[in-house]
Amino acid sequence: MNDFNLPLEVKHLLLTVINNDGDIDDLNKIGYDYLKIKTLIKEEIENGNAIFENSELKLTEKGIKFKSELAKKLNYQGVEEVISPKLSSKIEDLFLQSELFIPSEDELDF
Predict the structure, then answer these.
(1) Whole-prediction pTM value?
(2) Eight-class DSSP state of 59
């Protein structure tokens, strides 16, 4: 799957989340489900912008440069501070899971 239609703002957010070990819920809040987020992260790895090694996801030099170029193009400044640091607590589960559990309506408390 190719993310060429992914808005630049979302691409920058994704790279920022990866770079800052941020919270993927920021992407979920703007409409991307966890399966799509997993796919987007895998695409960044395949494109050489990110690497997953030693149970750690991080940007490569190429990814850092691309993120910087996107920030300039989007005229972003100081966005790094708005990303919550939670990705590492979820990333291993995200990549090791092959199935996604969706509870029934009866199991939801709200």
Answers:
(1) 0.69
(2) E
